[in-house]
Amino acid sequence: MVFHPDFPSDHTEEAQANPLLTYLQRQAPEILANVAKSASPEIKQIISHNVQGLVGMLPSENFNVKVTTDRDNLAGLLASAMMTGYFLRQMEQRMQLEDLADAVAVPRDSTSEE
Predict the structure, then answer these.
(1) Which residues of 39-59 are buried (b: 16+ CB within 10 A; e: fewer)?
(2) Cα–Cα distance between 58 and 6 in angstroms, integer?
(3) DSSP conformational letter for 39
(4) Tell me: the pLDDT tens digits for 76-94?
(5) How is the chain split into domains, by residue range?
(6) Any residues with CB less than 8 A from the CB of 65 and at least 6 apart, and which?
């Protein structure tokens, strides 16, 4: 999943006033694709379960599931998924740094050489 640089296509005042959206629209598609690829499978799985929990998880093989919503609610759902992704990525990086710090930490010997 990659950010579509032409979103929103109607160029509303709200979109033009959003500096993050303006920044994203100026980025090369390759940069956005690389950022999207940086999410680990674990993060993607957690976000998927989170969104499924928000929308509902009826198995599609047994049910003809259709979700109807308005623009504002869909925007809220997408914003929630994005914030969850950012949070999870930061926590994943923190975990990796803590693991690295634990791996390089030298245990102190209780006997010291004098």
Answers:
(1) beeebeebbeebeeeeeeeee
(2) 32
(3) S
(4) 888 888 888 888 888 988 9
(5) 1-38, 40-101
(6) 56, 58
